[in-house]
Amino acid sequence: RVQLKLPEYAATLPDIEWFQNKLARHGFEVPRNGELDERTRAVVRAFQMKYRPNNIDGTPDAETAAMLEVLTTPDPLKSSMPIPITNIASPIETAAEPK
Fold first, then answer.
1. CA distance linking residue 68 with residue 47, whole number of Å
2. CA distance 85 to 56
3. How far is 38 from 46, CA to CA, in rounded Å?
4. Less packed terminus of the chain by CB within 10 Å, N or C?
């Protein structure tokens, strides 16, 4: 899913407020001021360290955006498909019959 989103974010990178909102939604404590301040860079670095350790420069880039999008947006294919329930036996059916 990240690879599918990458061209979209490479063409148009979201603003800093978008990154801050997505990072906060994912559970990071980040300022929500729309500025690429040192605290925001530190949080972006922490995110990159966890999910993309080959480049942890703290720069909000297309790959970081694609990863944040995938991690904070439910997969529509998974969320729309019901989970099948099969082969579930009740405790009564599985209990051994007395002899």
1. 9
2. 43
3. 12
4. C
Cβ-in-10-Å burial (0-12, 13-18, 19+) of 14 comes to: middle
- Residue 91: exposed, middle, or buried by beta-carbon count in 10 A (0-12, 13-18, 19+)? exposed
Give the pLDDT confidence of 55-86 residue by residue, as tens digits: 999 999 999 999 999 999 987 777 555 555 55
Q: How far apart are CA 87 and CA 99, in angstroms?
A: 26
pLDDT of residue 95: 54
Closest CA to 41 of 27, 25, 28: 28
